[in-house]
Amino acid sequence: MHAMNNHRLRRRSVMIGAIATMPIGSPRAQSWPAGPLKLLVPFGPGGSTDIMGRLLASGLQQNLNVQVVVENRGGGATSLGTELAARAAPDGQTWLVTSDSFAVLPALVPNLSFDVTRDFAPVTLIATAPNVIAVHPSRPWRALAEVVAAARGGNLSYASTGNGTTGHLAMTRFAAGAGVRMAHAAYRSGGLALNDAVAGHVDMIIGSAALLAPQIADGRLRPIVQLGEARLPAMASVPTSAEEGFPDFLAETWWGVLAPARTPAAMIDAMLGATRAAFQEARVAQQVTQTQQARLRLDGPEAMRIFLAGQVATWGAVIRDHRITAD
Prior knowledge:
By secondary structure, the chain is of the alpha/beta class. It has two domains: 36-128 and 253-322, D-Maltodextrin-Binding Protein, domain 2 (3-Layer(aba) Sandwich), CATH 3.40.190; 130-235, D-Maltodextrin-Binding Protein, domain 2, CATH 3.40.190.10. It is built from eleven helices and ten strands. Strands 1, 2, 3, 4, 5, 6, 7, 8, 9 and 10 form a ten-stranded mixed β-sheet that branches. Strand 1 (37-41), helix 2 (48-64) and strand 2 (68-72) form a beta-alpha-beta unit. It is globular. Pfam families: TctC (PF03401). Belongs to the UPF0065 (bug) family. This is Tripartite tricarboxylate transporter substrate binding protein. It comes from Roseomonas nitratireducens.
C-alpha cells in the first residue's frame, strides 16, 4: 500500500509539472488573456502608429475572441503614453504599440521617469518603412550627390515632421558627415510639412514612404533617394542611399509591440503568436505593405531587443552631439 501511494504521488507530481510547463495557449494551462486587452498608443488618433494599433486590435479580437481597447495617450513627445505602459501591471493585459520615437526618448526628453530598456520587454518588431527624400519639381537635383553639391554652394532647406524625429536626426547626421549645412523647417504634422514642400516653400522634404507616396505618384514631388536597406517594390525606380554612394545614410520608420517589464515569457510568446497571426492575414498584410509602404518583419523578442539597442545608440548620439531638443 505504501509503495502504491508513493507511485500515485509521483504520478501526480509529474502531471502537475507537465501542466505548469505547458505553453500558454494550451487548454490545460492558465488561460490568456484573462480579460479585455488594452493597447496603449502614445500618439493621437489617425497617425500610422494608431493605424497599426487598430489593425492589431481587430486581429486580436477576431482571433482571441476578447475585447481589445486602443487607448491613445499622446503628449510629451510620446513620453506620456509610454510611461503609462511602463507602469502598467505585468499581467499580459496591457501592451504598448509604438514606433521609432520610442528609441529617441531617452536622449530627447530629459528626466524621464522610466527606462526604455529596463522597464519594457520587447515582443515584436511589426514592420519597417524607409524615410524618403523628395524635392519640389522646380529644383534641378536628381541625385543625392547633386543635393550635397548644391548645399555646399548655398543654404538648402528641408522640411520634416518635427524636431527629434528620425527624419530630422538622419538629415542632421548626414549633413554633418558631408560637411554641409541645411536649414531645417520643423512641422507639427506630416500634412503641414507636405503643404509647404508641394508649394515649393522649402527645397526638400524627408518623410515616411507612406507620407510622400501620393505626392510622388502624381508628380508634385520628385523622389531623390529612399533610406532603407533595399528598394520598396512600390518605389522600385527610387535608389537607396547605398546605391547613391552613402551606405550609412539610413533612417526607417518602424512599429513594434512591447510589454511592461516582468511580463511572463509565456504571455509574451502568446502575444507574439497572436500579433503574427493578425498581421499575416492577407487583407491586413496588404494594407501594411501598400497603404503604409512598409515591410512586415514580425521578428521575435531577441531580434527586436538587438534592433532597439542599435536605434537607441544611433539616434541618442546624434541628439547629444548636436544638442537637439523636442521643441
